[in-house]
Design a protein that fits this description.
heterodimer, A: about 325 residues, alpha/beta, Rossmann fold, six-stranded mixed beta sheet, four-stranded antiparallel beta sheet, 13 strands, about 30% helix, about 25% strand, B: about 260 residues, mainly alpha, two-stranded antiparallel ribbon, 2 strands
Chain lengths: ~325, ~260
Protein backbone atom coordinates (compact mmCIF):
# COMPACT_ATOMS: atom_id res chain seq x y z
CA UNK A 1 0.00 0.00 0.00
CA UNK A 2 2.89 2.34 0.52
CA UNK A 3 4.59 2.12 -2.84
CA UNK A 4 1.55 3.32 -4.74
CA UNK A 5 1.01 6.33 -2.51
CA UNK A 6 2.77 9.05 -4.50
CA UNK A 7 0.13 8.46 -7.13
CA UNK A 8 -2.91 8.28 -4.95
CA UNK A 9 -2.05 11.07 -2.55
CA UNK A 10 -3.73 13.84 -4.57
CA UNK A 11 -7.04 12.12 -4.07
CA UNK A 12 -6.92 12.46 -0.30
CA UNK A 13 -7.78 16.17 0.05
CA UNK A 14 -11.33 15.58 -1.06
CA UNK A 15 -12.23 14.28 2.37
CA UNK A 16 -10.92 17.31 4.18
CA UNK A 17 -13.29 20.18 3.37
CA UNK A 18 -16.25 18.14 4.52
CA UNK A 19 -14.48 17.38 7.77
CA UNK A 20 -14.25 21.06 8.66
CA UNK A 21 -17.55 22.77 8.07
CA UNK A 22 -16.37 25.87 10.00
CA UNK A 23 -14.07 26.56 7.04
CA UNK A 24 -12.06 29.69 6.34
CA UNK A 25 -13.02 33.35 6.30
CA UNK A 26 -16.13 34.37 4.39
CA UNK A 27 -15.81 34.87 0.66
CA UNK A 28 -12.87 32.51 0.28
CA UNK A 29 -14.34 29.33 1.74
CA UNK A 30 -14.11 26.21 -0.38
CA UNK A 31 -10.83 27.15 -1.98
CA UNK A 32 -7.77 25.41 -0.64
CA UNK A 33 -5.31 27.36 1.52
CA UNK A 34 -2.37 25.54 -0.07
CA UNK A 35 -2.23 23.68 -3.39
CA UNK A 36 0.98 21.97 -4.44
CA UNK A 37 1.38 19.92 -7.59
CA UNK A 38 4.43 18.27 -9.06
CA UNK A 39 6.73 20.12 -6.67
CA UNK A 40 10.41 19.41 -7.25
CA UNK A 41 13.51 20.79 -5.64
CA UNK A 42 17.10 19.94 -6.47
CA UNK A 43 20.28 21.06 -4.79
CA UNK A 44 22.89 20.47 -7.48
CA UNK A 45 22.47 16.85 -8.50
CA UNK A 46 20.67 15.89 -5.28
CA UNK A 47 16.90 15.88 -5.60
CA UNK A 48 15.46 16.70 -2.19
CA UNK A 49 11.80 16.83 -3.28
CA UNK A 50 10.81 14.52 -6.11
CA UNK A 51 7.45 15.63 -7.43
CA UNK A 52 4.92 15.88 -4.64
CA UNK A 53 1.24 16.86 -4.67
CA UNK A 54 -0.97 17.89 -1.79
CA UNK A 55 -3.68 20.28 -0.75
CA UNK A 56 -4.41 21.91 2.57
CA UNK A 57 -8.03 22.96 3.08
CA UNK A 58 -8.94 26.21 4.76
CA UNK A 59 -9.51 25.89 8.47
CA UNK A 60 -7.82 22.55 8.96
CA UNK A 61 -4.78 21.55 10.95
CA UNK A 62 -2.48 19.75 8.55
CA UNK A 63 0.47 17.85 10.00
CA UNK A 64 3.48 17.22 7.79
CA UNK A 65 5.72 14.45 9.08
CA UNK A 66 8.97 12.95 7.93
CA UNK A 67 12.47 12.07 9.03
CA UNK A 68 15.24 14.68 8.95
CA UNK A 69 16.55 15.02 5.43
CA UNK A 70 13.35 13.72 3.83
CA UNK A 71 12.54 17.05 2.14
CA UNK A 72 10.21 18.33 4.83
CA UNK A 73 11.95 21.61 5.63
CA UNK A 74 12.58 22.28 1.94
CA UNK A 75 8.87 21.87 1.19
CA UNK A 76 7.83 24.08 4.10
CA UNK A 77 10.32 26.79 3.16
CA UNK A 78 9.06 26.80 -0.42
CA UNK A 79 5.49 27.24 0.82
CA UNK A 80 6.66 30.01 3.19
CA UNK A 81 8.35 31.82 0.30
CA UNK A 82 11.87 31.46 1.71
CA UNK A 83 13.11 29.16 -1.02
CA UNK A 84 12.67 29.06 -4.80
CA UNK A 85 11.60 25.73 -6.25
CA UNK A 86 13.08 23.87 -9.19
CA UNK A 87 9.76 22.74 -10.64
CA UNK A 88 6.04 22.32 -10.12
CA UNK A 89 3.20 24.59 -9.06
CA UNK A 90 2.62 26.06 -5.61
CA UNK A 91 -0.29 28.27 -4.57
CA UNK A 92 -0.57 29.55 -1.02
CA UNK A 93 -3.66 31.65 -0.29
CA UNK A 94 -4.04 32.00 -4.05
CA UNK A 95 -0.56 33.40 -4.71
CA UNK A 96 2.78 31.93 -5.71
CA UNK A 97 4.94 32.28 -2.58
CA UNK A 98 8.08 32.70 -4.71
CA UNK A 99 6.80 36.02 -6.05
CA UNK A 100 4.11 37.10 -3.57
CA UNK A 101 4.41 40.56 -2.05
CA UNK A 102 3.92 42.18 1.36
CA UNK A 103 0.12 41.92 1.10
CA UNK A 104 0.47 38.13 1.00
CA UNK A 105 3.04 38.16 3.84
CA UNK A 106 0.52 39.96 6.01
CA UNK A 107 -1.89 37.00 5.65
CA UNK A 108 0.67 34.32 6.53
CA UNK A 109 2.18 33.73 9.99
CA UNK A 110 5.41 31.76 10.41
CA UNK A 111 6.90 30.14 13.49
CA UNK A 112 10.45 29.24 12.52
CA UNK A 113 12.30 26.33 14.01
CA UNK A 114 15.50 28.20 14.66
CA UNK A 115 14.35 31.55 15.95
CA UNK A 116 15.68 32.98 19.21
CA UNK A 117 14.02 35.82 21.12
CA UNK A 118 14.75 39.44 20.26
CA UNK A 119 17.51 40.19 22.73
CA UNK A 120 17.10 43.21 24.99
CA UNK A 121 13.41 43.91 24.32
CA UNK A 122 10.55 42.92 26.60
CA UNK A 123 7.83 40.55 25.46
CA UNK A 124 5.42 43.44 25.04
CA UNK A 125 7.95 45.57 23.14
CA UNK A 126 8.82 42.70 20.81
CA UNK A 127 5.15 42.19 20.00
CA UNK A 128 4.59 45.92 19.54
CA UNK A 129 7.55 46.08 17.15
CA UNK A 130 6.16 43.23 15.05
CA UNK A 131 2.63 44.64 15.22
CA UNK A 132 4.01 47.74 13.52
CA UNK A 133 4.96 45.64 10.49
CA UNK A 134 1.35 44.68 9.73
CA UNK A 135 -1.55 46.62 8.25
CA UNK A 136 -4.19 45.21 10.63
CA UNK A 137 -2.46 43.70 13.67
CA UNK A 138 -4.15 42.17 16.68
CA UNK A 139 -3.91 44.21 19.86
CA UNK A 140 -0.75 43.18 21.73
CA UNK A 141 -2.81 42.24 24.79
CA UNK A 142 -4.91 39.88 22.66
CA UNK A 143 -1.85 38.09 21.26
CA UNK A 144 -0.44 37.76 24.79
CA UNK A 145 -3.72 36.31 25.95
CA UNK A 146 -3.92 33.82 23.07
CA UNK A 147 -0.57 32.26 24.00
CA UNK A 148 -0.88 32.73 27.76
CA UNK A 149 2.02 35.15 28.21
CA UNK A 150 0.11 38.02 29.80
CA UNK A 151 1.98 37.57 33.11
CA UNK A 152 5.33 37.78 31.35
CA UNK A 153 4.54 40.85 29.21
CA UNK A 154 7.13 43.08 30.87
CA UNK A 155 9.89 40.49 31.21
CA UNK A 156 12.89 40.74 28.93
CA UNK A 157 12.33 38.20 26.19
CA UNK A 158 15.86 36.79 26.46
CA UNK A 159 15.12 35.83 30.07
CA UNK A 160 12.12 33.62 29.29
CA UNK A 161 12.17 29.84 29.67
CA UNK A 162 12.36 27.69 26.54
CA UNK A 163 8.63 27.03 26.52
CA UNK A 164 7.83 30.71 27.02
CA UNK A 165 10.14 31.66 24.14
CA UNK A 166 8.23 29.33 21.82
CA UNK A 167 4.95 30.83 23.00
CA UNK A 168 6.36 34.27 22.20
CA UNK A 169 7.28 32.94 18.74
CA UNK A 170 3.71 31.82 18.37
CA UNK A 171 2.41 35.22 19.46
CA UNK A 172 4.71 36.89 16.89
CA UNK A 173 3.27 34.67 14.18
CA UNK A 174 -0.26 35.62 15.30
CA UNK A 175 0.20 39.35 15.79
CA UNK A 176 -0.60 40.15 12.17
CA UNK A 177 -3.87 38.19 12.44
CA UNK A 178 -2.93 35.76 9.62
CA UNK A 179 -5.24 33.34 7.85
CA UNK A 180 -2.60 30.64 7.55
CA UNK A 181 0.08 29.76 10.10
CA UNK A 182 3.17 27.62 9.55
CA UNK A 183 4.35 25.98 12.76
CA UNK A 184 7.72 24.29 12.40
CA UNK A 185 8.23 21.87 15.31
CA UNK A 186 6.50 24.19 17.75
CA UNK A 187 6.93 22.09 20.91
CA UNK A 188 10.42 20.62 20.53
CA UNK A 189 12.12 20.62 23.92
CA UNK A 190 8.94 21.25 25.90
CA UNK A 191 8.11 19.47 29.15
CA UNK A 192 4.80 17.57 29.01
CA UNK A 193 2.69 20.26 30.65
CA UNK A 194 4.11 23.02 28.44
CA UNK A 195 3.38 20.78 25.47
CA UNK A 196 -0.24 20.39 26.53
CA UNK A 197 -0.53 24.16 26.97
CA UNK A 198 0.85 24.71 23.46
CA UNK A 199 -1.59 22.20 22.04
CA UNK A 200 -4.44 24.09 23.63
CA UNK A 201 -3.19 27.27 21.96
CA UNK A 202 -2.97 25.56 18.56
CA UNK A 203 -6.37 23.91 18.93
CA UNK A 204 -7.74 27.33 19.89
CA UNK A 205 -6.45 28.75 16.60
CA UNK A 206 -8.55 26.22 14.71
CA UNK A 207 -11.59 27.53 16.56
CA UNK A 208 -10.70 30.99 15.21
CA UNK A 209 -10.86 29.57 11.68
CA UNK A 210 -7.11 29.67 11.05
CA UNK A 211 -5.44 27.16 8.77
CA UNK A 212 -2.44 25.50 10.42
CA UNK A 213 0.42 23.81 8.62
CA UNK A 214 2.31 21.91 11.32
CA UNK A 215 5.54 19.97 11.18
CA UNK A 216 6.52 17.83 14.14
CA UNK A 217 8.51 14.81 15.21
CA UNK A 218 5.99 13.94 17.92
CA UNK A 219 3.38 11.45 16.75
CA UNK A 220 1.15 12.13 19.74
CA UNK A 221 1.16 15.80 18.77
CA UNK A 222 0.10 15.05 15.21
CA UNK A 223 -2.51 12.61 16.43
CA UNK A 224 -3.95 15.02 18.98
CA UNK A 225 -4.02 18.11 16.77
CA UNK A 226 -4.19 17.17 13.12
CA UNK A 227 -7.23 16.78 10.93
CA UNK A 228 -5.00 15.27 8.31
CA UNK A 229 -1.47 13.95 8.23
CA UNK A 230 0.95 13.63 5.36
CA UNK A 231 4.21 11.70 5.56
CA UNK A 232 7.22 12.39 3.36
CA UNK A 233 10.24 10.12 2.98
CA UNK A 234 13.15 10.52 0.60
CA UNK A 235 11.45 13.37 -1.23
CA UNK A 236 8.17 11.56 -1.91
CA UNK A 237 4.83 11.46 -0.17
CA UNK A 238 4.46 7.95 1.23
CA UNK A 239 1.07 8.34 2.88
CA UNK A 240 -1.60 10.85 3.70
CA UNK A 241 -4.93 10.67 5.47
CA UNK A 242 -6.57 11.23 8.82
CA UNK A 243 -4.68 10.22 11.97
CA UNK A 244 -7.08 7.28 12.36
CA UNK A 245 -6.74 5.85 8.87
CA UNK A 246 -3.34 6.90 7.54
CA UNK A 247 -1.18 4.13 6.14
CA UNK A 248 -3.97 1.56 6.53
CA UNK A 249 -4.05 2.11 10.26
CA UNK A 250 -7.80 1.51 10.52
CA UNK A 251 -7.72 -1.80 8.63
CA UNK A 252 -4.36 -3.19 9.67
CA UNK A 253 -4.19 -6.29 11.82
CA UNK A 254 -4.75 -5.99 15.55
CA UNK A 255 -2.16 -7.68 17.73
CA UNK A 256 -3.54 -9.80 20.59
CA UNK A 257 -1.00 -11.07 23.11
CA UNK A 258 -1.08 -12.87 26.46
CA UNK A 259 1.19 -15.04 28.59
CA UNK A 260 0.54 -18.77 28.21
CA UNK A 261 -0.78 -20.19 31.49
CA UNK A 262 1.44 -22.74 33.28
CA UNK A 263 1.14 -26.16 31.70
CA UNK A 264 -0.38 -24.81 28.49
CA UNK A 265 1.58 -24.87 25.26
CA UNK A 266 0.72 -23.18 21.97
CA UNK A 267 -0.55 -26.49 20.66
CA UNK A 268 -3.10 -26.70 23.52
CA UNK A 269 -4.81 -23.48 22.42
CA UNK A 270 -8.13 -23.71 20.54
CA UNK A 271 -8.19 -23.31 16.76
CA UNK A 272 -7.78 -19.64 15.88
CA UNK A 273 -8.27 -17.95 12.47
CA UNK A 274 -4.61 -16.80 12.50
CA UNK A 275 -1.35 -18.46 13.51
CA UNK A 276 -0.02 -18.06 17.05
CA UNK A 277 3.63 -17.30 17.67
CA UNK A 278 5.27 -17.69 21.06
CA UNK A 279 7.87 -15.10 21.96
CA UNK A 280 10.32 -15.19 24.83
CA UNK A 281 8.82 -15.37 28.35
CA UNK A 282 6.01 -17.53 26.92
CA UNK A 283 4.16 -14.58 25.41
CA UNK A 284 1.75 -15.74 22.69
CA UNK A 285 0.91 -13.32 19.89
CA UNK A 286 -1.79 -13.40 17.25
CA UNK A 287 -2.19 -10.73 14.58
CA UNK A 288 -5.54 -10.57 12.78
CA UNK A 289 -7.74 -8.01 11.01
CA UNK A 290 -10.85 -8.98 13.01
CA UNK A 291 -9.84 -9.13 16.68
CA UNK A 292 -13.29 -10.15 17.93
CA UNK A 293 -13.01 -13.44 16.07
CA UNK A 294 -9.88 -14.25 18.06
CA UNK A 295 -11.33 -13.09 21.36
CA UNK A 296 -14.59 -14.89 20.66
CA UNK A 297 -12.73 -18.22 20.55
CA UNK A 298 -10.22 -17.45 23.29
CA UNK A 299 -12.69 -16.20 25.88
CA UNK A 300 -14.87 -19.34 26.31
CA UNK A 301 -11.76 -21.52 26.18
CA UNK A 302 -10.02 -19.53 28.94
CA UNK A 303 -13.14 -19.29 31.11
CA UNK A 304 -13.80 -23.02 30.67
CA UNK A 305 -10.30 -23.87 31.88
CA UNK A 306 -10.41 -21.38 34.72
CA UNK A 307 -7.31 -19.49 33.59
CA UNK A 308 -7.93 -15.76 33.50
CA UNK A 309 -5.29 -14.67 30.88
CA UNK A 310 -4.96 -11.66 33.17
CA UNK A 311 -2.35 -9.86 31.05
CA UNK A 312 -4.15 -10.13 27.71
CA UNK A 313 -3.73 -7.03 25.55
CA UNK A 314 -5.44 -5.96 22.35
CA UNK A 315 -3.15 -3.60 20.49
CA UNK A 316 -4.02 -1.40 17.52
CA UNK A 317 -1.14 -0.06 15.42
CA UNK A 318 -0.05 3.33 16.76
CA UNK A 319 0.65 6.28 14.50
CA UNK A 320 4.29 5.95 15.45
CA UNK A 321 4.41 2.32 14.29
CA UNK A 322 2.78 3.27 11.00
CA UNK A 323 5.17 6.18 10.61
CA UNK A 324 8.26 4.10 11.33
CA UNK A 325 7.19 1.41 8.88
CA UNK A 326 6.41 3.89 6.10
CA UNK A 327 9.54 5.96 6.50
CA UNK A 328 11.74 2.87 6.80
CA UNK A 329 10.39 1.17 3.68
CA UNK A 330 10.91 4.25 1.55
CA UNK A 331 13.86 5.61 3.43
CA UNK A 332 16.65 4.42 1.15
CA UNK B 1 5.62 58.06 3.81
CA UNK B 2 4.69 54.58 4.95
CA UNK B 3 8.22 53.28 4.41
CA UNK B 4 9.49 56.33 6.26
CA UNK B 5 7.18 55.83 9.23
CA UNK B 6 8.10 52.13 9.22
CA UNK B 7 11.77 53.15 9.49
CA UNK B 8 10.92 55.45 12.38
CA UNK B 9 9.06 52.59 14.05
CA UNK B 10 12.09 50.30 13.61
CA UNK B 11 14.58 52.91 14.84
CA UNK B 12 12.59 53.35 18.05
CA UNK B 13 13.08 49.68 18.94
CA UNK B 14 16.65 49.43 17.63
CA UNK B 15 17.68 52.38 19.79
CA UNK B 16 15.90 50.85 22.77
CA UNK B 17 17.82 47.61 22.27
CA UNK B 18 21.08 49.53 21.80
CA UNK B 19 20.59 51.50 24.98
CA UNK B 20 20.15 48.26 26.96
CA UNK B 21 23.16 46.53 25.49
CA UNK B 22 26.13 46.68 27.88
CA UNK B 23 28.60 45.74 25.13
CA UNK B 24 27.36 48.59 22.99
CA UNK B 25 27.45 51.06 25.85
CA UNK B 26 30.97 50.17 26.98
CA UNK B 27 32.71 49.62 23.65
CA UNK B 28 30.85 52.12 21.55
CA UNK B 29 30.23 54.97 23.99
CA UNK B 30 32.62 54.70 26.94
CA UNK B 31 35.82 53.64 25.16
CA UNK B 32 36.18 56.76 22.96
CA UNK B 33 35.47 59.02 25.94
CA UNK B 34 38.09 57.29 28.09
CA UNK B 35 40.64 57.33 25.27
CA UNK B 36 40.12 61.04 24.60
CA UNK B 37 40.57 61.86 28.29
CA UNK B 38 43.69 59.67 28.55
CA UNK B 39 45.43 60.70 25.34
CA UNK B 40 45.00 64.42 25.86
CA UNK B 41 45.84 64.29 29.59
CA UNK B 42 48.92 62.06 29.26
CA UNK B 43 50.49 64.46 26.75
CA UNK B 44 49.42 67.56 28.71
CA UNK B 45 47.53 68.86 25.72
CA UNK B 46 50.82 69.83 24.04
CA UNK B 47 50.95 71.49 20.67
CA UNK B 48 51.74 69.56 17.52
CA UNK B 49 52.44 70.64 13.98
CA UNK B 50 50.15 69.40 11.24
CA UNK B 51 50.50 70.51 7.62
CA UNK B 52 52.51 73.51 8.81
CA UNK B 53 49.79 74.47 11.27
CA UNK B 54 50.29 74.52 15.04
CA UNK B 55 47.42 73.02 17.02
CA UNK B 56 46.85 71.80 20.54
CA UNK B 57 46.55 68.03 20.95
CA UNK B 58 42.87 68.25 21.89
CA UNK B 59 42.17 69.92 18.56
CA UNK B 60 43.72 66.86 16.96
CA UNK B 61 42.28 64.18 19.22
CA UNK B 62 38.67 65.38 19.42
CA UNK B 63 38.08 64.95 15.65
CA UNK B 64 40.16 61.75 15.50
CA UNK B 65 38.49 60.06 18.46
CA UNK B 66 35.17 61.01 16.83
CA UNK B 67 36.39 58.79 13.95
CA UNK B 68 36.71 55.98 16.47
CA UNK B 69 33.24 56.70 17.82
CA UNK B 70 31.61 56.72 14.39
CA UNK B 71 33.41 53.56 13.26
CA UNK B 72 32.63 51.83 16.56
CA UNK B 73 28.94 52.63 16.29
CA UNK B 74 28.32 52.25 12.59
CA UNK B 75 30.74 49.45 11.77
CA UNK B 76 31.79 47.57 14.92
CA UNK B 77 28.58 47.59 16.87
CA UNK B 78 26.41 47.21 13.79
CA UNK B 79 28.43 44.27 12.45
CA UNK B 80 28.03 42.36 15.74
CA UNK B 81 24.35 43.28 15.84
CA UNK B 82 23.66 42.20 12.26
CA UNK B 83 25.42 38.84 12.64
CA UNK B 84 23.64 38.28 15.96
CA UNK B 85 20.23 39.05 14.48
CA UNK B 86 20.92 36.95 11.42
CA UNK B 87 22.20 33.89 13.29
CA UNK B 88 19.41 34.00 15.88
CA UNK B 89 16.89 33.80 13.04
CA UNK B 90 15.53 37.23 13.92
CA UNK B 91 16.23 38.71 10.47
CA UNK B 92 14.66 35.73 8.74
CA UNK B 93 11.60 36.02 10.95
CA UNK B 94 11.27 39.69 10.05
CA UNK B 95 11.42 38.72 6.39
CA UNK B 96 8.40 36.52 7.07
CA UNK B 97 6.42 39.69 7.85
CA UNK B 98 5.33 42.40 5.40
CA UNK B 99 8.03 44.80 6.63
CA UNK B 100 10.12 46.02 3.66
CA UNK B 101 13.81 45.10 3.72
CA UNK B 102 14.55 48.80 3.24
CA UNK B 103 12.87 49.61 6.56
CA UNK B 104 14.96 47.06 8.46
CA UNK B 105 18.19 48.24 6.85
CA UNK B 106 17.47 51.93 7.16
CA UNK B 107 16.49 51.26 10.78
CA UNK B 108 20.03 50.00 11.34
CA UNK B 109 21.60 52.88 9.44
CA UNK B 110 19.59 55.58 11.21
CA UNK B 111 20.34 53.98 14.59
CA UNK B 112 24.06 54.06 13.72
CA UNK B 113 23.83 57.69 12.67
CA UNK B 114 22.04 58.75 15.84
CA UNK B 115 24.57 56.88 17.98
CA UNK B 116 27.47 58.41 16.07
CA UNK B 117 26.03 61.91 16.53
CA UNK B 118 25.61 61.38 20.26
CA UNK B 119 29.20 60.19 20.65
CA UNK B 120 30.52 63.10 18.58
CA UNK B 121 28.52 65.56 20.71
CA UNK B 122 29.89 64.10 23.95
CA UNK B 123 33.48 64.17 22.67
CA UNK B 124 33.16 67.77 21.48
CA UNK B 125 31.65 68.75 24.81
CA UNK B 126 34.61 67.22 26.67
CA UNK B 127 37.03 69.02 24.37
CA UNK B 128 35.29 72.36 24.92
CA UNK B 129 34.81 72.00 28.67
CA UNK B 130 38.20 70.58 29.64
CA UNK B 131 40.72 71.08 26.87
CA UNK B 132 40.30 74.55 25.34
CA UNK B 133 38.82 73.34 22.07
CA UNK B 134 36.94 76.15 20.32
CA UNK B 135 33.88 75.37 18.24
CA UNK B 136 31.30 77.45 16.42
CA UNK B 137 28.19 76.66 14.41
CA UNK B 138 30.25 75.87 11.31
CA UNK B 139 32.38 73.28 13.14
CA UNK B 140 29.27 71.65 14.62
CA UNK B 141 27.41 71.69 11.31
CA UNK B 142 30.20 70.21 9.19
CA UNK B 143 31.04 67.65 11.88
CA UNK B 144 27.40 66.56 12.06
CA UNK B 145 27.21 66.28 8.30
CA UNK B 146 30.41 64.22 8.17
CA UNK B 147 29.19 61.96 10.98
CA UNK B 148 25.89 61.29 9.18
CA UNK B 149 27.56 60.59 5.86
CA UNK B 150 30.35 58.42 7.23
CA UNK B 151 28.05 56.48 9.58
CA UNK B 152 25.89 55.61 6.57
CA UNK B 153 28.96 54.47 4.61
CA UNK B 154 30.42 52.46 7.50
CA UNK B 155 26.98 50.83 7.99
CA UNK B 156 27.10 49.67 4.37
CA UNK B 157 30.56 48.22 5.04
CA UNK B 158 29.22 46.44 8.12
CA UNK B 159 26.54 44.78 5.97
CA UNK B 160 29.19 43.82 3.42
CA UNK B 161 31.63 42.36 5.97
CA UNK B 162 28.82 40.45 7.73
CA UNK B 163 28.76 38.22 4.65
CA UNK B 164 32.15 36.81 5.76
CA UNK B 165 31.27 36.34 9.43
CA UNK B 166 29.49 33.06 10.08
CA UNK B 167 28.92 33.13 13.83
CA UNK B 168 28.18 35.76 16.40
CA UNK B 169 31.22 34.54 18.40
CA UNK B 170 33.46 35.47 15.47
CA UNK B 171 31.95 38.94 15.01
CA UNK B 172 33.68 40.74 17.91
CA UNK B 173 37.17 39.43 17.04
CA UNK B 174 36.62 40.39 13.40
CA UNK B 175 35.74 43.91 14.52
CA UNK B 176 38.87 44.12 16.68
CA UNK B 177 41.11 42.74 13.96
CA UNK B 178 39.82 45.11 11.31
CA UNK B 179 39.41 48.31 13.29
CA UNK B 180 42.25 48.28 15.80
CA UNK B 181 45.12 48.23 13.24
CA UNK B 182 43.27 50.84 11.20
CA UNK B 183 43.02 53.11 14.24
CA UNK B 184 46.79 52.90 14.76
CA UNK B 185 47.69 53.26 11.10
CA UNK B 186 45.16 55.99 10.31
CA UNK B 187 46.26 58.55 12.86
CA UNK B 188 43.49 57.93 15.36
CA UNK B 189 45.76 57.06 18.29
CA UNK B 190 49.15 58.22 16.98
CA UNK B 191 49.04 61.70 15.42
CA UNK B 192 49.61 61.33 11.69
CA UNK B 193 52.65 63.70 11.54
CA UNK B 194 54.47 61.04 13.57
CA UNK B 195 53.64 58.29 11.05
CA UNK B 196 55.69 57.71 7.87
CA UNK B 197 54.30 59.78 5.03
CA UNK B 198 54.06 56.76 2.68
CA UNK B 199 51.80 55.11 5.25
CA UNK B 200 49.62 58.20 5.41
CA UNK B 201 49.44 58.17 1.61
CA UNK B 202 48.25 54.56 1.52
CA UNK B 203 45.82 55.04 4.37
CA UNK B 204 44.27 57.99 2.56
CA UNK B 205 42.63 55.47 0.23
CA UNK B 206 41.19 53.25 2.99
CA UNK B 207 37.93 54.26 4.65
CA UNK B 208 39.23 55.39 8.07
CA UNK B 209 41.95 58.02 7.64
CA UNK B 210 39.93 60.24 5.26
CA UNK B 211 37.28 60.77 7.93
CA UNK B 212 39.97 61.93 10.38
CA UNK B 213 41.38 64.28 7.73
CA UNK B 214 37.93 65.65 6.88
CA UNK B 215 36.95 66.14 10.53
CA UNK B 216 40.32 67.80 11.21
CA UNK B 217 39.58 70.29 8.42
CA UNK B 218 36.20 70.98 10.01
CA UNK B 219 37.87 71.84 13.32
CA UNK B 220 41.03 73.53 11.94
CA UNK B 221 40.45 74.58 8.31
CA UNK B 222 44.11 75.67 8.03
CA UNK B 223 45.05 71.96 7.81
CA UNK B 224 43.08 71.87 4.54
CA UNK B 225 44.34 75.05 2.94
CA UNK B 226 41.70 77.04 4.82
CA UNK B 227 38.70 75.10 3.57
CA UNK B 228 36.40 73.58 6.16
CA UNK B 229 35.14 70.85 3.85
CA UNK B 230 37.62 68.33 2.43
CA UNK B 231 35.82 67.07 -0.66
CA UNK B 232 38.53 64.62 -1.69
CA UNK B 233 38.47 62.86 1.66
CA UNK B 234 34.67 62.71 1.67
CA UNK B 235 34.73 61.21 -1.82
CA UNK B 236 36.94 58.32 -0.64
CA UNK B 237 34.51 57.51 2.18
CA UNK B 238 31.53 57.64 -0.15
CA UNK B 239 33.20 55.38 -2.71
CA UNK B 240 33.85 52.80 0.02
CA UNK B 241 30.26 53.11 1.22
CA UNK B 242 28.81 52.61 -2.24
CA UNK B 243 31.13 49.66 -2.91
CA UNK B 244 30.06 48.10 0.39
CA UNK B 245 26.41 48.65 -0.46
CA UNK B 246 26.72 47.09 -3.92
CA UNK B 247 28.52 44.07 -2.50
CA UNK B 248 25.97 43.64 0.29
CA UNK B 249 23.10 43.87 -2.21
CA UNK B 250 24.58 40.91 -4.07
CA UNK B 251 25.70 38.73 -1.22
CA UNK B 252 23.87 39.61 2.00
CA UNK B 253 21.63 36.84 3.30
CA UNK B 254 18.82 37.12 5.82
CA UNK B 255 18.83 33.47 6.84
CA UNK B 256 21.16 32.02 9.47
CA UNK B 257 24.39 30.64 8.06
CA UNK B 258 24.69 27.62 10.38
CA UNK B 259 23.10 24.21 9.66
Amino acid sequence: MTTADPVDSPSTPKAAPAARPAGGPPGVGGRAAITVSGLRMSYGTYEAVRGIDFEVARGEIFAFLGPNGAGKTTTVEICEGFRKRTGGEVRVLGDDPATAGPGWRARVGVVLQESAPEALLTVRETLAMYAGYYPRPLPVARALELVGLTDKADDRSDRLSGGQVRRLDMALALIGDPELIFLDEPTTGFDPSARRAAWDVIAGLRELGKTIFLTTHYMDEAEYLADRIMIIAAGRIVASGTPETIGGRATDATLISFTLPDGVEAADLPDLPAPVTVEKNRVAEVAYEYPMQILGVLAPWALGRGCPLADISVHRPTLEEIYLRLTKEDGQ
Amino acid sequence: MSALSMTGHQVKYDLKAFSRNPRARVFTLATPVILLLLLVSIFHNNTIKLDGQELILAEYYVPHIIVMGVLGAAFGNLLVTIVGKRESGSLKRRRATPVPAAAIISGDVVTSIITALVIAAVLILIGVLFFDVKVDAAVIGVTALLCILSAACYSALAYAVSVFVGTVEAAAPVVQLTTLPLYFLSGVFIPSPQLPSWLNDIMSYLPVRPLGVALQAAFVPATNGGSRFDWAAVLVIVVWGVAGMLFAMRRFSWAPRRR
